[in-house]
Design a protein that fits this description.
The chain has 238 residues and is α+β, with helices and mostly antiparallel strands. It contains seven helices and seven strands; from the N terminus they run H-H-E-E-E-E-E-H-H-E-E-H-H-H. Helix 2 packs across helix 6 and helix 6 runs antiparallel to helix 7.
Length: 238
Amino acid sequence: MDLNGAIADIIPWDGSLSSSDFFLSARTFSEKWKMFNPSFPPWQWIPCPKQHLVASHKVEGYLSMENMCHIKSSEEEESNRSLTWEEDSNDSQREEPFDCGTLVCPEHEVNHYDFHIVYSSSYRVPVLYFRSYHSDGQLLPFNEIEKDLPCHSAKLLSESKWTFITHEEHPHLNRPWYKLHPCGTSEWMKLLYDGDSSLNRNGFVIEHYLVSWFSVIGQVVGLKIPLEMLDTVVSNDS
C-alpha cells in the first residue's frame, strides 16, 4: 500500500474534493453524460487562466452546458408544473448565447438556461451556477425563474429564500449568476458513500463524485441523470 492509501485508511474521507480531483471527476462526468444523455448538449470543460498565487499544479476551469431551452405551455397550471428541456437546434451556429434562433411556438413560452459546475475552493465541493434569459437576450428576474423550478424546489425556496439559492458573482466570469449554495454538500456526499470503505480506494469516489453529486443537485433545477448513468457507478462498485 502506498503512503496516500495508508493515510486514506487512517483519515476518514470528509466528502470534499481537491481542485485536481474535481478536474478528474469532471472529465468522467462529461464523458458519461455524453454517452448516456445524447439528447442533451454536452458538458464542456472551460479552462481558465490561473489566478495570482494559485499553485502551479492546480487545474483551473469549470464545466459548462449552455443554451438549454426550458419549454412550458402558457396554459400549464401551477399545481402541475413540469419541465421540458430541449437543446437549441441553432446552438452550433452561434458564438454568443443571445444570437440564437428562437424555438417559440404560439402556444408555448421558452426560457434559455446556462449551467456551470464550478469548484469552490473554500467549501472544496462543486457548485452549480446558472442564469436564464429570454430569446431576445433579456435576463429573467428571479420571480420568473422560480416558475420554472420543479414544485419541490419552489416549496423549499419559499421556506429558505436566499440561503438555498443565492445571487453572487461568478468566480470566473465576474458577472452575477445564481447558484445553489454549497453549504452541507460535503456532509451529504459523505453519507452517500458512508458504510463502504472500499469505495474510497482506487479513486472510485473521486472519479464518480460528480455523477453522484449531480444525481441530487440536478433535480433541484429539473435536470435528471439517466438511470443508465447511475448504473455504471453501481456496476463499477460490484
